[in-house]
Amino acid sequence: MTALHYYIADPTKNITALVETPVPAASRPFVASAVMEREPACEQVGFVYRGGAGEPCLAMAGGEFCGNASLSAAALFGEQAGLRPGETRDMRLTVSGAEEPVPVTVRKLADGSFDGAVTLPAPARITEEPLPLNGELLRLPVVWCPGIAHIMVTKDGLTAAEAEAVIRDWCRLLRAPGLGIMLFDSAAMALRPLVYIPGADTLFWESSCASGTGALGAYMALRSGERATLSVREPGGVLRVTAAPGGPPVLSGAVALTEARTLLVDISQ
After folding, report:
1. Per-residue model confidence as pLDDT tens digits over 83-139
2. In sequence order, which residues have a C-beta less than 8 Å from that of residue 58 and are 6 or more positions away?
3. Is the domain 125-252 a CATH 3.40.630.30 member?
4. Which 8-state DSSP code applies to residue 232?
5. Is the CATH code 3.10.310.10 the one for domain 2-118+254-265?
6. Which of 17, 130, 221, 234 has the fewest beta carbons closer than 10 A?
């Protein structure tokens, strides 16, 4: 048995566990399941470590990219570097699902939490795809991000129950490494994100979704042909995103960290 050390991060209520104990890549899905069983509020698990040159790294349990976990990992690295209230740290974070290191800035606040901004990888493409629903084909916009694809659906275009019923099949049809269905209310500027990660076998109505919010910003910028600056209301709070047509979205939000916790796990499985 291994004493697994991890932190709980709260980036806009998208509760994320960050494991700092070294875990072999093949064991990460099992370890993630054990942590999530211990922490029922947790929606995802990432593994933080230093690379061969000492660079900060984050690997998600399912190998996907996650913007909220990136903000959380940057906050943790800043905390461990002794960042004091009012101080800011810029870093380039190597993240699963992203081909290049991701620029992240975090600033420690007086209450010990962090403000952060992460430059998300630019979508590879935005397409319209035919997807089956109840014997018919819907043509829906898909934002293809590194490590995950996000489908943009108006709140009247798909019910929550329908989204849950089709997301696994749609993920297989699109051959996506992970899939989000973003139920978007443009009048209220509100987003309800459903995310399926087959590599970790997780399906959650997330309290907030950074990569999905970035995908929304990229989609809105492409559709309007000009820079989009959005404050998006999500179940866990507000995320802010700025995106230019064809460029990388920049997402900002807040992160709070807990003290380290310990769980005994057999990481050889």
Report:
1. 999 999 999 999 999 999 999 999 999 999 999 999 999 999 999 999 999 999 999
2. 18, 46, 47, 48, 69, 70, 73, 93, 94, 95, 96
3. no
4. E
5. yes
6. 130
